[in-house]
Design a protein that fits this description.
Layout: E1 12-14, H1 30-43, H2 47-60, H3 77-99, E2 108-111, E3 115-118, E4 121-124, E5 130-132, E6 137-140, H4 143-150, H5 157-176, H6 178-187, H7 198-221, H8 228-238, H9 241-249, H10 262-275
Parallel strand pairs: 1-2, 2-6
Antiparallel strand pairs: 3-4, 5-6
Helix pairs in contact: 1-2, 1-9, 3-5, 5-7, 5-8, 7-10, 8-10
Length: 289
Amino acid sequence: MKWRSARRSSNVQDIRGRRGGGGGGLKLGLGGVAAVVVIGLLLGKSPMELLGMVAQVQQQMPADTAGTADAPPVNDEASQFVASILGETEDVWGAIFADSGSRYTPAKLVLFSGQVQSACGGASAAVGPFYCPADQKVYIDLSFFDQMERRLGGGGDFAEAYVIAHEVGHHVQTLTGISGQVNAIRQRGGNVEGADGPLVRQELQADCYAGLWAHHAQRRHAWLEDGDLEEAMNTATAIGDDTLQRQGQGQVVPDSFTHGSAAQRVRWFRAGFESGDVERCDTFAANQL
């Protein structure tokens, strides 16, 4: 992927290696993350919920028990890559919003290491990349990309770009009111999980938005190389609910889906990538996901 041709965003905040912002603290390794996921599935609980509890414990640890991570070099290649992908999401979504007569407000992206405090609460590297609508920021510990490649079977620069674009897709949903609608259902006590539920539809729409972004970015830069698209599809397959459940508990429970099956995630990414049309990403109106 020839990502260096993209404009680098100035909306990246790099706090890797800082105490209290990202460095230090108890950090789950690959085995620890896998163990938490398996325990969650066996107990019938959301692995993300359990990982969030781990993050809360980490946040409550005394400061003197946490080491200080070594900060990476300023403006290293990893941060340049993230800034380039974020900059391209800003340019693509800025143009799409302008075409509809509105203005796109870019998200901020925070690079952290170990643990971080967001407006949505404390989180550790174990939870993976996430978007917080309360402060409209994307949070990423770059060690997730290593885990994605070694543990989940995904990986590669375009796969990493897909993950970033997916999280930015959640920001677009916040700006357009979709996230608020799903949260309103949850606050009323409605069930948002399940293979056909609002949460899966929200996540699949973010996948479609990531594909839509990739469509327009490719037209602007012709930056994809042989194997890049396959990288993204392999990653989408690796993080499908059915794939993770089958690995974790040996069976698939669609009623507990939160992100969609592997086939659904691939299908909706392709819908965005092949069409480049926002209207094709209306997962909430789709009769079949």
